UniProtKB/TrEMBL annotation:
It holds the Pfam family DDE_Tnp_1_7. InterPro entries: PGBD. This is PiggyBac transposable element-derived protein domain-containing protein. It comes from the Eukaryota. Residues 1-40 form the PiggyBac transposable element-derived protein domain. The lineage of its organism: Eukaryota, Metazoa, Spiralia, Lophotrochozoa, Mollusca.
Length: 145
């Protein structure tokens, strides 16, 4: 016997510290640190013939580099968030300004919508453009004076 347990000392040298609300994260991180520390000890025993042994930090870095070379080279491209365009720009001008006589009528909406002109809530919409419009904003939106 007579040995000294240095696992805690080695783990505290390079502790994983991330703030998280998951209760299990500290336990997972500690187990990962123990696994890496034990792997480093085994590596030192089996690789004792080399002139320059790896310290714990260099061992961690080497493991991470190997892992990234195998699994981290291809990252999934993230889709850019689509910015919502104002309703005025969503309706083509050919449809928007073709006049009231060509099917533009204010009608009831099943849900509350935003008015395309004044941005207030409304229960009316243009039946052809399918955008929310108040009765007062209807003519101005379609360019009718």
């Amino acid at each position: 016997m007579g040995g000294v347990d240095r696992a805690d000392q080695n783990i505290n040298a390079y502790r994983i510290s991330l703030r998280t609300k998951k209760w299990w994260w500290p336990y997972f991180a500690h187990v990962l640190e123990l696994v890496m520390q034990n792997a480093w000890l085994l590596f030192r025993r089996t690789d004792a013939h080399t002139a320059e042994p790896l310290d714990l930090l260099a061992f961690w870095r080497r493991i991470v580099q190997v892992y990234l070379m195998r699994h981290g080279a291809i990252a999934k491209p993230r889709r850019a968030a689509r910015l919502a365009l104002p309703a005025v720009h969503r309706v083509p001008d050919e449809v928007r300004f073709d006049g009231v006589a060509v099917g533009h009528f204010a009608g009831p909406s099943q849900t509350t919508k935003r008015c395309a002109l004044c941005k207030k809530n409304t229960k009316k919409l243009c039946l052809k453009c399918t955008v929310g419009l108040h009765n007062q904003c209807f003519n101005a939106f379609h360019g009718i004076h």
